[in-house]
Design brief:
The complex is a heterodimer of chains A (274) and B (170). Chain A is an all-beta fold. Chain A has two domains: 80 residues, Immunoglobulins (Immunoglobulin-like, Sandwich); 150 residues, Immunoglobulin-like. Chain A contains no helices and 22 strands. The chains are: A mainly beta (274), B mainly alpha (170).
């Protein structure tokens, strides 16, 4: 973060009570805005593509300046040499202008929303299975894409839904993956972006086929899955839908899949718990 | 009280009621707009300076009061609790499942509050310290105002020490 304490209208601290305005009589003919994203990942902190809700420090040389924003987001505060840009909660552009004594300069950000979610088995966890039953389960960590911005200032949640099931899973047809009595999960915070993976959700999902107790036979069970996101307590938006899928083949092999992660067990595998 | 500090104080009160950090964030953004140099009346400027100090300190005191030192960020909540195989037909397993689901929901709410309070603390602490450093001189009257306000509002000894240092520019 840049900026100097000698700036009498430093945005992080207010102004000197003497009322002196060191920059008020200064003239400039040219100014430049530098930006620094507060997220440590992606490592390019000067990038102008940001996720919804991201925070970016803006510094203008030859400040202080009066700042205006055209587009999505807000500026905190609206005057000073060093300020904070908070990206809005929808995709778009944010053109920011700093007007100082005799000069003005601009910087433009592209603000993007999440476009997908993938899951990965949580490190250090195991497969859930009961020997001689065609069941399979695992714990998974969700990641929000794209991974070239940070979504650490959004919240996410999963909606409940009923499955369509047949064959071995027929007795579970219409079951809901979050149980019968809730419409959605709690909201979860999102952590730092992981290079190549996306922004890491601060929650772990339990993905499990269950078992009916019937003799193994071919079967399939599919849940349509929706995840929502929001910035602060703003508008809820929904990511593209995907499936949570559980399949049993003729040998009793069971495969559970969700958001790009998939695990398989055989009937004879020993009992195990995630 | 000035309009801006009154609105910020109301946001802090709203946080205490709801235990959601959005109002605290809003309070910090309001206080960041305080511009003492724009107040031409010296007496009003001094009053605004003190009000803004008190409100900034009330904000960080609210953060300190609600931070849970035992919070473990690695202990994340679950997206869901797997329903019982019986589908909830068995009353005992259904009761256990509902209890686990409620506990998980409360854990998610705690996790969110603690995570966001820590993030806000990281963002706000430098702002408050700079406000103190840039708005107060080292003359005894200024130092006394900061010391008395810190003593009145700040219970966290580390916070109190950092603010006092900021005021004396050590």
């Amino acid at each position: 973060m840049s900026g100097t304490d000698s700036d009498s209208s430093d945005p992080l601290g207010g102004t000197n009570p003497t009322g002196s305005t060191g920059g008020a009589t200064r003239k400039c003919t040219k100014c430049t805005i530098t930006s620094e994203a507060t997220a440590n990942v992606p490592t390019d902190k000067s990038r102008t593509k940001v996720g919804i809700g991201e925070h970016v420090f803006l510094t203008v040389d030859n400040g202080p300046a009066t700042w205006t924003l055209s587009g999505v987001g807000r500026l905190v505060p609206s005057e000073g040499t060093l300020i904070l840009f908070i990206a809005g909660d929808t995709a778009g552009t944010a053109a920011i202008e700093a007007v100082g004594p005799g000069c003005c300069c601009t910087i433009t950000f592209t603000v993007v929303e999440p476009d997908s979610l993938t899951m990965e088995q949580e490190a250090g966890t195991h497969i859930r299975h009961h020997q001689d039953n065609p069941d399979c389960g695992f714990l998974a960590r969700p990641y929000i894409h794209p991974d070239d911005v940070s979504f650490s200032n959004i919240d996410v949640r999963e909606l409940n839904s009923a499955c369509v099931a047949d064959g071995y899973f027929k007795p579970m047809d219409g079951y809901k993956h979050q149980g019968q009595y809730q419409e959605f999960s709690p909201w979860f915070t999102v952590g730092e972006c992981q290079p190549g993976k996306g922004s890491r959700v601060c929650a772990v999902d339990q993905i499990y086929s269950g078992c009916t107790g019937d003799p193994p036979e071919v079967g399939i069970m599919v849940f349509p899955i929706d995840w929502q996101y929001r910035v602060d307590d703003g508008v809820e938006n929904t990511l593209p839908q995907f499936d949570q899928r559980h399949v049993v083949d003729a040998t009793g092999q069971s495969t559970s899949s969700k958001a790009g992660e998939s695990k398989t067990t055989s009937l004879t595998d020993p009992d195990s718990m995630w | 009280m000035s309009d801006i500090t009154a609105r910020a104080a109301a946001k802090i009160a709203e946080f205490e009621e709801k235990k959601e950090t959005v109002p605290l964030q809003a309070a910090s953004e309001l206080l960041a707009e305080v511009n003492l140099a724009k107040e031409p009346d010296p007496m009003k400027r001094l009053l605004l300076r003190r009000e803004a100090l008190e409100t900034w300190l009330a904000l960080v005191a609210a953060i300190d009061k609600n931070l849970d030192p035992s919070f473990n960020p690695q202990d994340v909540p679950s997206v869901k609790i797997s329903p019982p195989v019986s589908g909830g037909a068995d009353p005992q397993s259904r009761q256990q499942y509902e209890q686990a689901t409620q506990q998980n929901r409360e854990k998610a709410q705690r996790y969110m509050l603690q995570t966001k309070l820590r993030r806000l603390d990281e963002m706000v602490t430098p702002r408050v310290e700079r406000y103190v450093r840039l708005s107060y001189t080292t003359v005894p009257g200024d130092q006394r105002e900061v010391a008395e306000t810190v003593k009145k509002l700040i219970e966290n000894p580390q916070r109190a020490s950092a603010l006092t240092r900021a005021a004396s520019r050590q």
